[in-house]
UniProtKB/TrEMBL annotation:
Key words, A-Z: NAD, Oxidoreductase
Protein name, entry field: UDP-glucose 6-dehydrogenase
NCBIfam families: NDP-sugDHase
Enzyme Commission number(s) of this protein: 1.1.1.22
Protein family membership: Belongs to the UDP-glucose/GDP-mannose dehydrogenase family.
Pathway: Nucleotide-sugar biosynthesis; UDP-alpha-D-glucuronate biosynthesis; UDP-alpha-D-glucuronate from UDP-alpha-D-glucose: step 1/1
Reactions mediated catalytically: UDP-alpha-D-glucose + 2 NAD(+) + H2O = UDP-alpha-D-glucuronate + 2 NADH + 3 H(+)
Record-annotated UDP-glucose/GDP-mannose dehydrogenase C-terminal domain positions: 317-418
Annotated signal peptide: none
Superkingdom per UniProt: Bacteria
PANTHER family: UDP-GLUCOSE 6-DEHYDROGENASE TUAD
Length: 437
């Protein structure tokens, strides 16, 4: 099947490359000519494990093409995916649909025959209805319909998530759209992935509900971690003890410095806006957002407290800046408020991240950046782990202890354990692992 993908950001590029890998003929379209040129030369705009080789292999086989020309890119396509950005709109937190509507308007003008327009971008409930109207207004060929097919990809594991999904959700209002999407995802049914057909508005809501629920699990366990610190309990045992109950499930119960990234913060806010517009309260989601904002804001105080009450004049090593491991994405990363506040408190910062340092430099101009973890830790009063990169797990704690001025680890991801740190002569503060006075 011929498929066009408008938008070669994170979602569009991963989805386009994976669909091509299933044997479909995919053209990825983007307005950014530099990006398209780079992609044609095998240079990726983002850092995602396995993406480069997947793109290159499918380009070589002639199944994956890149273009800046929309008319050429959608030529002969049966399905046109829209995977452009839907950032949070400044001021009200609503999803900004400017790029989506712009793409739809342009698409309507260049289509020569009916297609199924599929929204992959995360769009608020009712966007499919609006796109349907817009296509008609702009004179799209009769028979062009709109379906919703949200993505559930995690950065850092996106290719695996696309190819072995827990489920595929398709929201459609007509049989043709259902048929086309069934055909597109046929290779996945062979992997037994359930395909759930719903109404279009329901499908749009499922994406937000899924992200809000996962954000809720994280905020829940983060508050439990706080309680564990007060009552001398271990949050990992709590997580395991509740997670073994199938009704709860073991995933997304890892405490941390608060969730970040391009989805949870933005989508929870957009969901609240949708609910407010509909005149319906969403008290749980509202509280989840508040808990997370407070959590991120409190991490600098946690470090200052561990340093005896003040970070002034202290040198603090930061291990990890990305919002989670295996990505160079800094969007809404907990490291940003942490480092900013520590600098405001009068600390100096020496940071290290395996891949996100380039993106972080612009956001954290007051910080110094080291070439590796040991370089960051040199002469530091405290070492703060902010991202759970695997490469941090096996670091030599004795080496840290020798080169640091202070002997303190504040582990905001619980990648180390107290016994190992203490054996190396470091004092250790994790999250929710027993009493913190
Ligand atoms: C998320 C969803 O998982 C994905 O389905 C959706 O399509 C997009 O948003 P992503 O933002 O890439 O994906 O990352 P994810 O792995 O879900 O992590 C989100 C945030 O939650 C990170 O900051 C992570 O560190 C944090 N997190 C996750 C925790 O603090 N604890 C956990 O147990 C899990």
């Amino acid at each position: 099947m011929r498929i066009a993908m408008i938008g070669t950001g994170y979602v569009g590029l991963v989805s386009g490359a994976c669909l091509a890998d299933f044997g479909h003929e995919v053209t990825c379209i983007d307005k950014d000519s530099k990006k398209i040129e780079a992609l044609k030369n095998g240079i990726m705009p983002i850092w995602e494990p396995g993406l480069e080789s997947l793109v290159k292999a499918n380009v070589e086989r002639g199944r994956l093409n890149f273009t800046t020309d929309l008319a050429e890119g959608v030529q002969g396509a049966e399905a046109v995916f829209i995977a452009v950005g839907t950032p949070a709109r400044r001021g009200d937190g609503h999803a900004d649909l400017t790029y989506v509507f712009e793409a739809v308007r342009e698409l309507a003008k260049v289509l020569k025959g009916p297609v199924v327009v599929v929204t992959k971008s995360t769009v608020p409930v009712g966007t499919g209805d609006r796109i349907t109207e817009l296509l008609a207004e702009e004179g799209a060929p009769a028979g062009t319909t709109v379906a919703s097919n949200p993505e559930f990809l995690r950065e850092g594991a996106a290719i695996r998530d696309f190819k072995i999904p827990d489920r595929i959700v398709v929201g459609a209002e007509d049989e043709r759209a259902r048929e086309v999407l069934r055909e597109i995802y046929r290779p996945l049914f062979l992997n037994q992935a359930p395909l759930l057909f719903t109404g279009r508005r329901t499908s749009e809501l499922i994406k937000y509900a899924a992200n809000a629920f996962l954000a809720m699990k994280i905020s829940f366990i983060n508050e439990m971690a706080n309680l564990c610190e007060a009552v001398d309990a271990d949050v990992h045992d709590v997580a395991r003890g509740i997670g073994l109950d199938n009704r709860i499930g073991p995933k997304f119960l890892h405490p941390g410095p608060g969730y970040g990234g391009s989805c949870f913060p933005k989508d929870t806010l957009a969901l609240l806006q949708t609910a407010a517009d509909a005149g319906v309260e969403q008290r749980i989601v509202k509280t989840v957002v508040e808990v997370n904002d407070d959590r991120k804001a409190s991490m600098a105080d946690r470090v200052a407290k561990a340093l005896g009450g003040s970070a002034k004049g202290k040198r603090i090593a930061i291990l990890g800046l990305a919002f989670k491991q295996n990505t160079d994405d800094m969007r809404d990363a907990p490291s940003i408020p942490l480092v900013t506040k520590l600098l405001e408190m009068g600390a100096s910062i020496s940071a290290y991240d395996p891949v996100a340092a380039g993106n972080a430099r612009k956001l954290l101009p007051g910080a110094e950046f080291a070439k590796d973890a040991y370089g960051a830790a040199k002469d530091a009063d405290a070492l703060v782990v902010v991202t759970e990169w695997d490469e941090f797990r096996g670091l030599d704690l004795d080496r840290f202890a020798k080169s640091m001025r202070g002997k303190l680890i504040v582990d905001l991801r619980n990648v180390y354990n107290r016994a190992d740190a203490e054996e190396a002569g470091l004092s250790y503060i994790g999250l929710g692992r027993g009493r913190i006075d």
